[in-house]
Design goal:
It is a single chain. The chain has 544 residues and is of the alpha+beta class. It has 2 domains: 2-14 and 35-294, NADH Oxidase (3-Layer(aba) Sandwich); 331-524, NADH Oxidase (3-Layer(aba) Sandwich), CATH 3.40.109.10. The protein is built from 16 helices and 20 strands. The strands form 4 sheets. Strands 2, 5, 6, 7, 8, 9, 10 and 11 form an 8-stranded antiparallel β-sheet that branches. A 7-stranded antiparallel β-sheet has the order 15-16-14-13-17-19-18, sandwiched between helices. The longest helix is centred in the middle third of the chain and has 22 residues, at 181-202. It is globular, with a radius of gyration of 22 Å.
């Protein structure tokens, strides 16, 4: 494990952007070999999924509440709705001739390295087995039909449950971002976790990552370890498995081991050949494969963590249905540089980043917060512009005070709700700092605020190099939450993967490796590009 830990520590150092040079990348885009944005498996039986007709009308703000009356039964239509709201296409954009898909789950550069699978048993209308979701056509490809006599008499899945498996095609990101792509793939896994959890909540369901499972078992169940099925096609790396259940709150936490499913998958009938995404790879980035191998997760024991008791979430001004907010989510391309948000909106966004028991999306993961927010406040009414820090876990307070610059004020914001650990470090105009640190991008300065996500790095990785992935997942979950909260507040957000890692640390006075930057994000009033035409998501499908 020590060698693997050294490998991933070296990868993180190597892939930092610096003020005087960027991490290794292609330098230019090989448009002729741009990866196909959709993976499919030829010769797999296809199942057309129904589109949302009687849309779940649950209000967005009610996603954070437990309400058994909204719980839908486990049906093929329900599974289809979950996939549409988490991985489906929300719209197409067109400029002159070219057009491209926008999806419900965010992705770095809209490249979508994350592939989604569902594993079902006993659900009417869908065979027992492993199915790959193709968002372009809203279909499931049957990859494996289970022979249930192979796994024995015991059921493979808990009652009223199915699995959502995620994998990453690293090449999709590496084509554009080079060596730093492995980081971005992990961000997108975090986005996907939150997307699944929010979609499940819209149906009144539960969803949780099976954090104890190892990559080998996940790969075997999803079939991504089958060499013959991929041939020359780009491989997929197993990321994680989520259990989705219609059972009441807390049932997704019941112990569940993969043994019977692995046996069913290994003894099942597999069909389909993966498509090649690019005919030629102008650049290859071996360090990504090295990082992935170093982060291979073994089987682990879950360590129970109970979220602290907190007040009810702060109120929201949103009165829109959850489906509407989820489908309208966009990544802002430009902010107006003028509009502000209220402190109420700002505090609501911070509040929702705090885990509460049985409250999405944080009940989907089983670890305490390890990522905190360094905030560049530009235009929040009633709040002085400046550099702030928000602690998502109180235990880190003394450590951060000791490790950050001794010049900081550490003034707790007076009118902020007491359970929000928000401190002003410096009162100043920080627009230029935000712009510079986010690779000189104006969008970081023109919004109401931007932020950098700081992870408890050394202490987290002491538990194993695979935790490196989980830190990015947590940052991605934060990103998807902020995307939706921005939409709910009538503004817009966007993730920023390009930032100068060590320059951020220098600004904060961090002198060692105990904290590391995981992700940047910004929120503001977005400007619309009127040249782009928006097209319906599934107008080409003749389905009800």
């Amino acid at each position: 494990m020590k060698n693997s830990l050294n490998t991933i520590l070296a990868y993180h150092r190597r892939t930092k952007h610096h003020l005087n040079h960027y991490a290794a990348g292609p330098g230019g885009l090989d448009w002729k070999n741009q990866p196909d944005p959709f993976r499919n498996f030829t010769s797999s039986p296809q199942l057309e999924l129904p589109l949302l007709a009687d849309e779940p009308r649950r209000p967005y703000i009610d996603l954070y509440k437990t309400d058994e009356t909204t719980r839908q039964p486990l049906t093929l239509s329900g599974i289809a709705a979950l996939l549409e709201l988490s991985f489906g296409i929300s719209a197409w954009k067109q400029y002159d001739g070219p057009r491209w898909a926008l999806r419900c789950n965010p992705s770095s550069g809209n490249l979508h390295p994350t592939e989604a699978y569902v594993i079902t048993e006993g659900c009417s209308g869908i065979v027992n087995g492993v199915h790959h979701y193709v968002s372009r056509d809203h279909i499931l490809e049957q990859r494996c039909r289970f022979d249930m006599t192979v796994s024995g008499s015991e059921p493979s899945l808990p009652p009223a449950s199915f699995l959502v498996g995620l994998s990453s095609i690293h090449w999709r990101e590496a084509w554009k971002y080079g060596e730093r792509a492995y980081r971005y793939c992990q961000h997108d896994v975090g986005h996907a976790i939150a997307a699944v959890r929010y979609a499940a909540a819209a149906l009144g369901w539960q969803a949780r990552v099976l954090t104890s499972w190892n990559d080998g078992n996940i790969g075997a169940i999803l079939g991504v370890d089958r060499d013959a099925d991929f041939a020359e096609a780009e491989r997929e790396h197993p990321d994680l498995m989520l259990i989705v259940t219609t059972q009441p709150s807390g049932s997704a936490h019941s112990p569940f081991t993969p043994g019977a499913l692995v046996r069913a998958a290994r003894g099942g009938l597999w069909q389909g050949q993966a498509n090649m995404l690019s005919a030629h790879h102008l650049f290859d980035w071996p360090v990504i494969d090295e990082a992935a191998r170093a982060c291979t997760k073994p089987e682990t024991q879950d360590t129970p963590w109970q979220a602290p008791m907190l007040p009810e979430p702060l109120s929201s001004i949103c009165n829109h249905p959850a489906v509407e907010i989820i489908k309208q989510r966009r990544s802002a391309q430009e902010f107006d540089g003028v509009s502000s948000i209220s402190t109420g909106t700002f505090y609501r966004m911070l509040d929702m980043t705090l885990p509460r028991s049985t409250v999405p999306p944080w009940d989907a993961i089983g670890w305490e917060p390890r990522v905190h927010l360094a905030l560049f406040v530009h235009r929040v009414d009633g709040l002085a512009p400046g550099l702030y820090i928000f602690l998502r876990n109180a235990h880190i307070a003394a450590k951060l005070r000791a490790e950050l610059s001794s010049q900081f004020d550490w003034i707790q914001v007076e009118d902020c709700p007491a359970h929000l650990l928000l401190f002003r470090l410096v009162a100043a105009d920080v627009q230029n700092a935000a712009r510079t640190l986010s690779c000189h991008q104006d969008i970081a300065a023109d919004g109401a605020f931007s932020l950098g996500m700081l992870a408890e790095y050394e202490t987290s990785l002491a538990n194993g190099p695979w935790v490196y992935r989980q830190l990015f997942w947590e940052a991605g979950i934060l990103g998807q939450l902020l995307y939706l909260e921005a939409e709910a507040a009538g503004v817009r957000g966007t993730g920023i993967g390009c930032y100068f890692d060590d320059a951020v640390h220098d600004l904060l006075g961090i002198q060692n490796q105990s904290l590391q930057s995981m992700y940047h994000f910004t929120v503001g009033a977005a400007l619309t590009d009127t040249r782009l035409q928006t097209l319906p998501a599934y107008a080409h499908l003749k389905r009800s």
